[in-house]
Amino acid sequence: MSSQVQTVLKKYWGFENFRGSQEKIINAILQGEDVLALLPTGGGKSLCYQIPSLVSDGICIVVSPLIALIQNQVQQLKDKGIKALALTGGISQNQLIDLLDNCIYGGYKFVYLSPERLQQTLVQERIAQMKVNLIAVDEAHCISQWGNDFRPAYLHCAVLRDIKPEVPILALTATATTVVAKDIITNLKFNTPKIIQDSFSRSNIAFAVVQEENKQQRLLELCRANKSSSIVYVRSRRKAQQLSTFLNRHHLKAGFYHGGLPKPSKKTSLNNWLQNQTKIMVATNAFGMGIDKPDVGLVVHFQIPDSLENYYQEAGRAGRNGEEAKAVLVTNKEDALHLKKQFLDVLPDVAYLKMIYKKLSNYFQIPYGTLPDGSFPFSIEAFSETYKLPTSKAYNALRILDQNSVISLTQNYSRSTKLQFITHKQVLRDYLKQNKEAYELTQTILRTYGGVFEFETNINILLLSKKTSFTEEKIIRHLEQFKKDEIITFKNSFRDIDLVYLVPREDDRTINVFAAKVTQQLKAKVLQIEAILAYIDNNKLCRNIQILNYFGENTGKKCNNCDVCLQTRSFGREEYSLITDSIFKELIASDRSSRELLVALPFDEKNILKAIQYMLEEDVIYITAINQYALKK
Prior knowledge:
Rossmann fold; seven-stranded parallel β-sheet; 19 strands
């Protein structure tokens, strides 16, 4: 390691030494090699491109998929006195030109941009004029059609090789199977491909699969036992809000986060969690890349994720500070059926894709052979209702059309909700006497909005949800019922997508171009579902070994920390001593129920119960009047 590299590491980051393969990656880059770096979540990927760029003349181009992640990285560099800028959305043409000029003449060391921004001709032309010392492609698995987060725009990253053929490329990811790794190298046109991989093993995370009929109760116990931050992953927006409400009702501070939240609400929810104002974040996978909180001690998957890639990446947000942490998948017999229904039953084949494309074009009245200008506000619910289609399957078909650049879908969450009371106040009072549950909502509306009897009024469903005990969905149901009962007029228009046509309409010919690839992807998705279900069902092989084998890292080394390892360990004198000591520590703090001890202690449940029984027989502990265990005085 050169003294200059060591100096930069110490000066800007305060570290004396590198972790894992960071030094090996940096040296390979400085020697001009293309590198695919496979590092575990929290493995310090950003240092691998930041340090070699800082010790070299020129600027580093960083391609990253998330605006929030880009902004965070740029701010961190600025805080260290390093010149960096972000080419994010919302920038005018003149501003973009000024920023690109700054990259050429302003002494900047890093420019971050999204793969979509990279597609602009102006951006490509200005990059050609820059003195570039390194190209870094973060979350590189997004470039692979076999990856869990495939983004078609990432395929355009290869243009950087054409623009700057002599500049080394560093691709970074924390989740890549052997197939995905090969795809990354091919798509980025590596000249001298070098793969450097640290073990994906996270020895400080105890993985567990818990079979539980009463999942909410088990979740409550897990969250109570964890003293630091927690993340609870679910698969639906509704479930995120429901579980957040459930946890708060049981005096645990929880927020929720999903893709349907307006940006201000997302920001508030995230900041509250980052600043420890809320302990638990209940979220969909929209709470994903770029979430870096060191003190997460627990990640719970309340529902089965759709792949081991997603599961491992999300679970890997635990224990980034190196402290012991838990990753628990809580499931039951019904979950596997729900998973297959949600992800396999809604997979569109080529014939279904062709049908959807034709209906979509008819929906917008696009003539054959025409490429329409502009974007269309689009509601997947309204489209599905028009043609009596299952919404999830139709949406998946549209996503495939988006991934293959037939159309472009942009999330644009908006809702317009208007109502007016059209009955006399006395009639309303009589109505509410018969509908007591609706009384709270009605009173809140009347206190919040003046003039709702006189004219049609815009209302905010999210605001009403915060002011009442109702979820947004429940408020909508009540208002729909009010409308049916002729108490109010109610208009609730909703859209969450802007849709743009990218190629002229040619029906089947449009789909035939990528039909074979779609068929392959369907098979790959089936294999991903089978892999996560096999992981759940396999209670004989160490969880760590199962995960590492999936990513091509074959090891026979057990973690001795997961539920499988703890279950298969013999219950000898040493084990008994460890468990009883742990029980003592828990009971010194306060009396505990058996359930609370099972949640708090990292041992096999059967062995904990055996130890409790021995301690009762030896008259070391006793059962209180409220069925808790306590130490004998």
